[in-house]
């Protein structure tokens, strides 16, 4: 566990240094989004919410959470997942409307499994891990429709597909060199 926290500190330091060296005409945005998400191993459906800070038109980062309420995974058991992430995206604009991006970040997952007829017997697993994946967005005015694949590595490996919308909460044009 200590090794994992060491890598987390290194990643945060690297991201901080990267942000210092970003070009001097930054288009800063605060964005929020939401949408349904599917966990691919068991096929359960949840809801994702995210809040991202766009440092410029290419880099954004922020927290997101996905909650999957208890759902039957076989005739005896049901499963719930809470997936908490802090991710960064590097956006490559293919046109003025379409962008693609890799994503990477830190993940904390809580999984609970219980017998359907015996809710007093619950098995709980928790794990810190890493996210990887990719996504695409399509601009519709001030909104973005997005689709994203995300994998999680760690003790609780998993894969997700999320689709949704992102909207701008605030926008600020700043000339750092002035």
Helix count?
Answer: 1
| Span between termini | 45 Å
Strand content: over 45%
Low-pLDDT windows of residues: 20-25
Overall strand count? 9
Task: Give the helices and strands as they follow along the chain.
Answer: HEEEEEEEEE
| Helical content class | 10-25%
Mean pLDDT: 85
Q: How are the secondary structure elements laid out?
A:
Elements: H1 2-20, E1 25-39, E2 45-54, E3 59-72, E4 77-90, E5 92-93, E6 98-115, E7 118-140, E8 143-153, E9 158-175
Antiparallel strand pairs: 1-2, 1-9, 2-3, 3-4, 4-6, 5-6, 6-7, 7-8, 8-9
Polypeptide structure, described:
With 178 residues, the protein is mainly beta. It has one domain: Porin, CATH 2.40.160.20. Helix content is 11%, strand content 70%. The protein is built from one helix and nine strands; from the N terminus they run αβββββββββ. It has an eight-stranded antiparallel barrel with strand order 1-2-3-4-6-7-8-9. Strand 6 and strand 7 form a beta hairpin. The longest helix has 19 residues. The radius of gyration is 18 Å and the shape is elongated.
At a glance:
11% of the residues lie in helices and 70% in strands. It is mainly beta and 178 residues long.
Descriptive terms for the model:
70% strand; mainly beta; 178 residues; Porin
